[in-house]
Amino acid sequence: MKNPIEPKILPGFMELLPKDQIVFNQIKNTIQNVYEAFGYLPLDTPVIEYANVLLAKAGGETEKQIYRFTKGENDLALRFDLTVPLARYVASHRNELIFPFKRYQIGKVFRGERPQHGRYREFYQCDIDVIGQETLSLAYDAEMPLIIYQIFQKLGFGKFTIHLNNRKILNGFFESLNLEGQITDILRIIDKLDKIGSNAVIEELQKIGIAQKQIETIIGFITTKGTNAEILTKLKDMAISNNLFNLGIEELTTVLNYLESANIVEEYYHIDLTIARGLDYYTGTVYETIIDDHRDLGSVCSGGRYENLTSYYSNETLPGVGISIGLTRLFAKLKEVNLLPNFKNNLTECLLIPLDAAQIPYATQTANALRDANISTDIYYQDKKIAQKIKFADRSGIPYVILIGEDEQNTGTLTIKDMLNSTQETVDIQKCIKIIKGE
Amino acid sequence: MKNPIEPKILPGFMELLPKDQIVFNQIKNTIQNVYEAFGYLPLDTPVIEYANVLLAKAGGETEKQIYRFTKGENDLALRFDLTVPLARYVASHRNELIFPFKRYQIGKVFRGERPQHGRYREFYQCDIDVIGQETLSLAYDAEMPLIIYQIFQKLGFGKFTIHLNNRKILNGFFESLNLEGQITDILRIIDKLDKIGSNAVIEELQKIGIAQKQIETIIGFITTKGTNAEILTKLKDMAISNNLFNLGIEELTTVLNYLESANIVEEYYHIDLTIARGLDYYTGTVYETIIDDHRDLGSVCSGGRYENLTSYYSNETLPGVGISIGLTRLFAKLKEVNLLPNFKNNLTECLLIPLDAAQIPYATQTANALRDANISTDIYYQDKKIAQKIKFADRSGIPYVILIGEDEQNTGTLTIKDMLNSTQETVDIQKCIKIIKGE
Predict the structure, then answer these.
(1) Is the Cβ pair B10, A49 closer than 8 Å?
(2) Share of chain A above pLDDT 70, in %
(3) Looking at the predicted structure, is the pLDDT value of residue A280 above 60?
(4) Residue B52 and residue A365: Cβ atoms within 8 Å?
(5) pLDDT at B78
(6) Cβ proximity of A312 and A56 under 8 Å
(7) Is the per-residue pLDDT at B1 higher than 70?
(8) CB contacts, 8 Å: B136 with chain A
(9) How far is Cα B406 from Cα B418, in angstroms, rounded to an integer?
(10) Which of B226, B214, B202 is CA-nearest to residue B174?
(11) Which of these, A115, A156, A98, A100, lies nearest to A342 by C-alpha position?
(12) Size of interface A-B (CB pairs under 8 A)
């Protein structure tokens, strides 16, 4: 016999056993259902695209991470996020789309970075974006926290807080300090406050040459505390005469007013002036979502408002706002900290066990009737001992077993066994359906 | 302004507009729901794998088609089907899986072939397989047509026929003619009977050196006509003393007996001795599915029984049986012949239109209530004329619009407009929910 090839997968790629996959899919479906409930339309763009199209705006880090290769004469790449494909899609189909265009996409993206703990090279992103033509109402900025709220309420991972900021406030503030040339660097450092602490932030700001007095002003600003209303008041009280800063305050106030009037408890969202979302990309509202008791997980849902989605592909101005959930990493982390116990890990509700091959036809007919009643039903057809057949149901976590022997076949009955309580009774199919449905 | 990059995708890649995507997803969900109803468990293997693992058994054609590339030191490839990843998965996780192992996987696969009409380089496969340890009951072979029957009944593309054969019958028949050395070539030619006709098949058989008398016997055999029972009788009456042939007849008889006792009308399945499914892979029952009025679409669901899933990765014997639906191609073809009109192409059931920004809070609260009642609800927040707002609903195919002006806000009412009948009435939220739900 030849030497078998080792059946291994690459590090940094997630592959689950069925029970975990069932839980994963429930989380994915929950997210998708909320997206659809808010009127977002499904999109499914190719995994492989032209490299020059995908890399239109990519910088050095992204280029290094990307899976890029040639096939025939084509220079190709695997998508590394769902935003660039969206931009390409909207630019390509803009005459056929209806604006404001709300879309969701849930799919795998690929980044060939060195896999570290909790980092994946292939992972699911669950994105929504709403794209306007020329303008987009700030009410859509308020819709994002409502959606995050719905999703994480339904997922039940515990109390969470949606952190809100506005990039115009940040940018305007730094303009007022005459630090506009260093905004990108400063924002990158500030963004790490939560991870590295204020001393390390101060040190890094010193390293890039920010004066001590300005550093104090910056630290004072980004650590402004209070309720949302109090923070807004403090910001206004700073009386900074910078248009961008004041426009940012106005936008954030509008978004918070919309949120206040919606069905969302205030303790679930909070202004956090440290949030910048690194990228140059965002120009207005920005979001991060923290599970309160698991701050170490980092943001589980982030996003923001951008000025122009398709600048690399068209000359139109298409502003948008969106959020993204990195599902693969989220799932792995939640599993690690044991936050997934409330999800059921089986789909099949009932296992039919014909005691002998002679009962297979009756079992198959019974399965048809159960499936017609929307009960997912498996049949154990293998020729094994009864104990092994029941063990299959037990190991699989199937809650009901229906035993079918000669007696049942002759009398048109079924012996249903409740696997949890180890009780069993012989009944007709209608009663079986009621038992399984808990009626 | 810089020159934009053309936002195009590669030929041979499918990308749909939202309305088509919604239909596509309904078909995908229908397939998935039936798979789950029969007890198949979800699996989601990586898109990228080690090339040597994926190509363990691949031949020349597959190697040419595969997307293969290096990243760092790794020789990688994109999956070109879902069967090889299943084999690798089962070999890798065999101690953690519960057998018989029933899994479904619905995902994209990649083949870099020259794109022709109706051929895709990236396409969805929807696969199920059931894998046994050492043995696998023939009742699972009968389960496949039951599943195909459920799916295509639910999809409603019109009357279809599941064509059944058994590779042992074919192989045994050719052994009895002392043509076992040429079986692969002969099967490949026979498989084309439906496409190229019997004259061309005769010609091709002559070309590979089959004697005229044997060709007549072959053509006589593969064109055996009659009901399933009649064909089985004719096969038995041939009294060929070949063990494989007779074992094949026995297996096919068993599978047909199981089908007869199940909830499936006989006109939906039929023995077809021309079916070989090309590949060397299959060793028993084989399936193809034809939509009767659209034979030109080819088989829309195919598969079969194989002796050993994991022979390249382990020394265990794991027999299996499975089917696959090539969803991307199927969707494109069905759309082309206009077989998709019965699917709804919108998800959003209701659009709320605040007439003015002042009504946004009331609109958002109303949307929350509708969504709590499981009504997917969009809100048009943009500052546009009322006619444009209604046009958005019309173009989007949203059946109900709820207009919210100052009057509605002051009286806690809603003006609901039925877009199909152009009727409208002012009612409370409970009545709105009833109207939208058709109660």
Answers:
(1) yes
(2) 97
(3) yes
(4) no
(5) 97
(6) yes
(7) no
(8) 382
(9) 21
(10) B214
(11) A156
(12) 284
Identity of residue A248: G
The count of C-alpha atoms lying within 13 angstroms of the C-alpha of B103, restricted to the half-sphere facing its C-beta, is: 27
Is pLDDT larger for residue B420 or for residue B277? B420
Q: What is the pLDDT of residues A313-345, one digit of tens each?
A: 888 899 999 999 999 999 999 999 999 888 999
The residue in chain B having the minimum alpha-carbon distance to the alpha carbon of residue A33 is B376
With the C-alpha atoms ordered B351, B353, B358, B359, is the resulting torsion angle positive or negative? negative
| Residues in chain A within 8 Å Cβ distance of B46 | 9-10, 13-15, 122
Give residues 313 to 332 of B whose Cβ lies within 8 Å of A.
313-315
Q: Is the pLDDT of residue B59 over 70?
A: no
Cα gap A110→A104, rounded to integer Å: 18
Smallest CA–CA separation between B240 and chain A, in Å? 28
Interface of A with B in 349-368 (CB under 8 A): 351, 357, 360-361, 364-365, 368
Domains and CATH numbers, chain B: 10-131+307-345 (3.30.930.10), 141-300 (3.30.930.10), 350-437 (3.40.50.800)
3-state secondary structure of B5: coil
Position B115 confidence tier, pLDDT thresholds 50, 70, 90:
low
pLDDT in tens, B210-226: 999 999 999 889 889 99
Is the Cβ pair A5, B52 closer than 8 Å? yes
Share of chain A above pLDDT 90, in %: 82
The Cα–Cα gap between B47 and A110 comes to 9
